Structure formats: structure tokens, C-alpha cells
User: What shape does this take?
Amino acid sequence: MHIPSFHSIGRISEWLVTLSVGTIITSIINLVLASYENLQDLYVGGPDDVLYEIDSVVGSISSIIGFLVIIIALYWFYWANKNIHSFGAKEISSPIMTVIWWFVPILQLWKPYKIAQQIWKGSNPETGLATGTEWKKLPSSNIIRLWWILGMLPLIILSIFVIFAILNLGTNYTDLEQAGQKLAESKEMLFYSNLGSILSSGLVIASTIFFIRMVKQISLWQEIKSGRSI
Assistant: This one.
């Protein structure tokens, strides 16, 4: 039977998947560029200016796509959560809190993950919601678990790099020899920064793949559970 209060997330899921594929593509390009920059640093003495320009353009495109993904993902989570309320699920976060938790310091590190698991369980068409709490008996999704863990690791890597950079900055140089030492340290910092970018890009790619699987599965389940044809 069709559920009147149900709001299909099929179209928004398509947009989210498309933009997520864009994230994977830009991450692959960033990975290749960072690898090539380090190879040039090792064998040529440093990357050329053209490579920096390409890196800047790709970075700008990546930022735009990332911003759009965030906005659409929040909209997707809001309606996906609202839908499981319409299915009769109880003892879950409200739709508005589904969005707010992403912006609450510390709690944002695990609350959105918990809500994603709630949406996954509540969307499963094989689970009846006679009392509204049957979803609690379902096991947590490994797809969501891997999406979250792989997505958190780049943030940890970035934090480590920022701390490392802070600890190695602030030295004043007064002569040519010390200036040369500063240049060498700057190149070394760039080299390790690229290594961090390579690792982070790989993790982002893996995390985004699992995110796409989560979005598509939940969208499909909700269409089935609502009684709509797909």
C-alpha cells in the first residue's frame, strides 16, 4: 500500500551518486598529480609551474563538487530519515537532528554514523514495524561502517600533518645558509604533504564507493517499502 507521507529520494539519490562519482574522479586525479609531483621532486628537482596550475584547477573543481555533495547529502539524510518515520519507526533521531548532528563538535564524529545505521535498518523492506522498534534487532551495516571509518581516516591524517607542520614552523633565518636549509625543509614538507594527499585520496575513493552503495541501497529499499513501483 502506498504511504501518502512518503517522499521519494530516488531523484536526489541519483544526483548524490553522480556528484559522488565526480568526487572519485577528482580524487583519482589528485592522487595521480601528487604522485607525479613527488616523482619530479625525486628525479628532476621539483615539479614545474604547469603542474601547480593543473593542481590548482583540480583543487577548485574538487572543492565545488565537495560543497555540492555536502548540501545534497544533508538534504538526502533529512528525507531518508523522515521516510522511516512515515514507515512507523520509533526511537530514532528526528529529521532535523539528522542534519544538526553533523555540525555539533565531537558528537559529529559518531552521531551521523549512528543515524545512518538507523535509516539503513528502518528502510529494510523485510522488517515490519508493527511496534516501531523492530529495526533495533537488525545487525549494523558493514557498508556504512566502512564508509564512516574510511571517511574519518583522511581527517586524522590531515590533523597529524597540521600538527607536524606547526611543530616545524617558526624558525627565523638570517643568512644564506640558513635560508637554503629553510628551502630544503620546505621541499621536504611538500613531499610529505603529497604523500599524505596520496593516502587521503585513496581513502576518500574507497569511502565514497561505500557511500554510493549505501545511498543506492537505502533509496531502493525505501521505494519498495513505500509500495511504489521501481
User: Anything to note?
Assistant: Residues 101 and 107 are 7 Å apart (CA to CA). The helical segments are 10-43, 49-86, 95-100, 111-123, 142-167, 176-226. Residues 10-226 form one domain.
